[in-house]
Amino acid sequence: MNNSTHMPALEVSCLNVSYKKESVLFDVSVTVPQGVMLGVIGPNGAGKTTFFCAVLGLIAYSSGTISLLGSPIDGVRNNITYIPQRSSVDWDFPLTVFDMVLMGCYGKLGWFSRPSHDDHQRAYQSLDMVGLSDYAHKPIGILSGGQKQRAFLARALMSDALIYFLDEPFAGVDIATEKIIIALFKKLRDEGKTIIVIHHDLLTAPLYFDWAFLLNKTSIACGPLSEIFTSENIMRLYGSAAIAQMVSIHADQKGM
Amino acid sequence: MISFFMAHYTLFLVMYGASLFGITAGVLGCFALLRQQSLLGDAISHAALPGIVAMFLLTHSKEPWLLLIGGVVAGIGGVWCMNIVVAHTKLKKDAILGIILSVFFGLGLVLMTVAQKIPVGSQAVLNKFLFGSVATLLPVDIVIIQAISLFIFLVLFLLWKECCAYVYDPLFIQSVGYSACVIECVLTGLLVLTIVVGLQAVGVVLMSTLLIAPAAAARQWTVRLSSMMILAGFFGCISCVAGVYVSACVDHIPTGPSIVIIATMIVLFSLLFSPVRRIV
C-alpha cells in the first residue's frame, strides 16, 4: 500500500470509447491526485457515465490507458467503490435496506463465501453513519429519494475503499441528505480518500467540490476548481457564452 | 391406507413429478420476473421446440433425456441468436424476442409436420410438448426431473449471493470484480433447464405462465427475495398438483391449461387481497 500513496488516484490518457460505432468519448486525458473531492462536470450527453464505466472496466474502450493508484483496475478493485445512478436499479425489488447495504462487502468476500457476523455489524454501523438505522429492516421501496441515495452511500462505506466513484448523488435529494453526504465526503477526504463525483449542475459545483474535471466528449480541463472555473473553460464546456457569463457572475457573488 | 396408495401409485408419481416442475419454475421465475424478462422465458420455451423435434427426427427415439438435450441446445441457441442480434443491430430487445419466438416456434411446427410422415409410430410423444401432459410421466422421467431440479437448487444455493446482487444491481456487482458474463450464463442456463424440464407438464405455449404467475403472486406477499422464492415455489407446486388432479378427474383436459388457470387464479387472489400491494 505504501508505494501507492504517491500515485495519482486516477490517470487516464488518450481514452477513446465508442458504442455501436458511434464515438462517445474522444481523446480523454486526465490525472487526479489522491485526497481530493473532484466533480466531473459536463452537460447532459457529455459521456460522464460512460467515462465512469470505462474507468471501472464495465465497458470496453477502443484505445487509451487507464490506471487507478498506479495499477490497472483489476489489481485494485478492493480499493474502489462505485455508486451508480439511483435510477439505475429497481427500487421495487424485494430487498431490505440492511440486505442491500450488506452487498457492500461482496467485493472482499469473493465467489461462494457468505457475509460473516462481523460484516453484519459493519453494515449496521454504515447505516448509522448515514442516519438510516431505523430503516434497516424495511423494504428499500419505502425510502424517499434522499434516503435511497444515503442507502447507496452506506453500501459504499462497507467497502473501506480508497477511491469513491459516485454518479449524480445530488440529483433530486433533500437538504438533510445533501448535508449528510457533504459531511461524509469531507470526512473521507480528510482521511486521505479520493471522491470522484459526476455532477451536471454547474452552479452548485463550487459548493461541493475542491477539484473539477470538465468533460464534454473530450477532456476540457482538470484542476483545482477555483483555477479552472474560468469563463473561457465553461464556454468551451457548454458552447454557450450565456451560461459562462451566468456562472462567472455567480462565482463573483460568492467571492471567488 | 397402503392399498389406497398402491391403487393411486401412478397418480402420486405424476403429482410428485408435477410438484417438482412447479417448485423449480416458481423459484427461477422470480429471477425472470425481477429482471423484467418474462418474455425471455416465453422465447426460450418456444425456441426449445425445434430442438426437441429435430432430436426426434435424428434419432427416432422417444427417450425423454435425449429429447430434452435437444430442447436445451435449441433453447440456448435461441438466447444466443437474440444476443447476437441485440449486439449488432439497433432493434429494440422486445422486437427481437418477438421475432425469435415465432421463428423458432414456426420452425418447430414445420419439423413436427415432417415428423408425422415418418413411419415409426412414436411421434405421438411430441404432441405433449405442445400443450403438456404429465399423465404419461414414467418413473424414468421422474428421475431426470429430480436430478435436474436438485442440480438447479444446488447451483442456486452456492451462487445465491452473486445471483441476488446481480439481479438487483448488475453494475455494482461488476464494479466490485464479479464477472457479469459468468453470472449471466448461470442464470440463463438455469432458466433454460427449468423451462425444458417444465415443457413436459405445461407445453411450449403455456410455459411462460408457469414461470411468471407464481413469482408475480409471491411478490405481492413478501419483501425479501428469499421469502418470495420460497412462496413462489409453493404456489408453483400447488398450481401443478391441483392442475394435474383436475386434469385427471375431468376427461380430455390437458394438464397445461388446467395448471395455468389455477396459477392465474392464485395471481388474481394475490393482486386483490395482499395486505400491502393490493390494487384496491
Distance between the termini of chain B: 46 Å
Helical content class of chain B = over 70%
Strand content of chain A: 15-25%
Shape descriptor of chain B reads globular
The level 1 CATH classification of chain A is Alpha Beta
H/E series of chain A, N to C? EEEHEEHHHHEHEHEEHHH
* Averaged pLDDT of chain B: 88
Q: Helix tally of chain B?
A: 12
How many domains, in number, for the residues of chain A? Answer: 1
**Category from helices, strands and their pairing of chain B:** mainly alpha
Strand order of the largest sheet of chain A: 5-6-7-3-8-9
Largest sheet of chain B: none
Strand runs of chain B, count: 0
Structural class of chain A: alpha/beta
Name the helicity range of chain A.
25-40%
Approximate strand percentage of chain B? under 5%
State the distance separating the first and last CA atoms of chain A: 37 Å
Q: What is the multimeric organization of the chains shown?
A: heterodimer
Enter the CATH topology name of chain B.
ABC transporter involved in vitamin B12 uptake, BtuC
**The named CATH superfamily of chain A:** P-loop containing nucleotide triphosphate hydrolases
Provide an overview of this structure.
The complex is a heterodimer of chains A (256) and B (280). By secondary structure, chain A is of the alpha/beta class. Chain A contains ten helices and nine strands. In chain A, the strands form two sheets. A six-stranded mixed sheet of chain A has the order 5-6-7-3-8-9, sandwiched between helices. A three-stranded antiparallel sheet of chain A has the order 2-1-4, covered by helices on one side. In chain A, helix 4 packs across helix 5, helix 5 runs parallel beside helix 6 and helix 9 (231-238) packs antiparallel against helix 10. In chain A, 45% of the residues are buried. Chain B is mainly α and 280 residues long. Helix content of chain B is 83%, strand content 0%. The relative contact order of chain B is 0.17. Classes of the chains: A alpha/beta (256), B mainly alpha (280). The A-B interface holds A 20, 53, 56-58, 74, 77-78, 80-84, 88-90, 93-96, 99-100, 103, 106-107, 109, 111-112, 114-115, 139, 155, 159, 165 and B 34, 36, 90, 158-159, 161-162, 165, 167-169, 171-178, 219, 222-225, 227-228.
